[in-house]
Amino acid sequence: MIKESRLFNFINKEKTFAISFLEGQKVIHDLALIHSVNNQGFGFFRDCTLSILPIINFLKPQENMGIFIDSENPYFRFKLEMNQAGFFRTLILPEDLPAVPEKISGKLRTAKQFPYSKTPYTSIINVDNRSIKELMNDFFDKSYQMKSQVIISDDSDQVILLTKLPEVNVDKEEIVESVSLKDYIKQNKENFDNIFKQALNEDNEIQKAFEELDFDFLKSTEIKFKCNCSRDRMVTGVAGVVRSSGFADVFHNDASIETKCDYCKTAYLITKDEVNSILNLH
Questions:
Q1: Which pTM value belongs to this model?
Q2: Is the peptide bond preceding residue 120 cis, with omega within 30 degrees of 0?
Q3: I need a surface site. Which of 61, 74, 104, 159 has the fewest CB within 10 A?
């Protein structure tokens, strides 16, 4: 049995850099079972998912966030919804991508739901010929005003999100500027590559590997695919389509139709009577 994936949070001794490290073998394994993305497209689907999930470390209790990539060139739609507890669901459409999207042009939409707030905070970033790594680095720069870089492993289903922390002058003394994000990555590239090549998945082994790089362990969160679809939501959704298009366009001459959740592929058999009951309540 594959161990559940975990997202680790570390900070270096000087408190100048933070690392979010995702051990994502189980996450990617589950996505391969759920989604029928073609061979050339699944690697891109993997990179999108691994690049975005470390954002969970930046969410506060009871916060939820959605990241949506609306690419026009090449055309595809990617969605990932996640919460602070470590649950997420994701999809990419169409699943039969004609080619691996090396560069993306379109929009990156975000929606962040705060506890006790009915209306989410939303933002849109225009994307012009950017790779998925560049896109997420832009997201952190523009949405969080932080210098961060995504480093995806070629050897294992793992990713590092390295963030340069802001300089804090607590004692009103002159601040000596720490090394830049770019230089820090260059200095530690071999160290990060060695961690990736080991494909560590035990908590103590991962913590030890980063402690040897002078990072202190802060916390870890279990990351799991979990869809919140339900029969009631599906019936309501079909009722909405029927309200605008009519029973004939949706059910034709059948007494029921099968609908499927795009996220988890769970199938629901929805009857005409159920939909009619919903419509009669409104």
A1: 0.90
A2: no
A3: 61
Contact criterion met (CB below 8 Å) for 206 and 23? yes
C-alpha to C-alpha distance for 152 and 83, rounded to whole angstroms = 22
Q: Give residue limits of the domains in the chain.
A: 5-225, 231-280
- Mean predicted lDDT score pLDDT of the chain: 92
The CA-atom distances, in angstroms, between 74 and each of 3, 45, 101, 104, 206 are 35, 14, 7, 7, 37
Q: Any idea how long the chain is?
A: 282
Q: Is residue 101 classed as helix, strand or coil in its secondary structure?
A: coil
Element (H, E) at 43: helix 39-52
Under the banding of pLDDT at 50, 70 and 90, the label for residue 189 is very high
Nearest-10 Cα torsion for 94, 96, 101, 106: -10
The pair of structure tokens assigned to 154 is 């070629």
Backbone φ and ψ for 59, nearest 5 degrees, come out as -85, 145
CA angle 136, 140, 145 (to 5 degrees): 160
pLDDT digit string (tens) for 27-80?
999 999 999 998 879 999 999 999 999 999 999 999 999 999 999 999 999 999
> In whole angstroms, what is the distance from residue 43 CA to residue 167 CA?
37
Q: Which CATH architecture has domain 231-280?
A: Alpha-Beta Complex (3.90)
Fold classified for 5-225: Hsp33 domain (3.55.30)
Measured in whole angstroms, the distance separating CA 124 from the mean position of its chain's CA atoms is 16
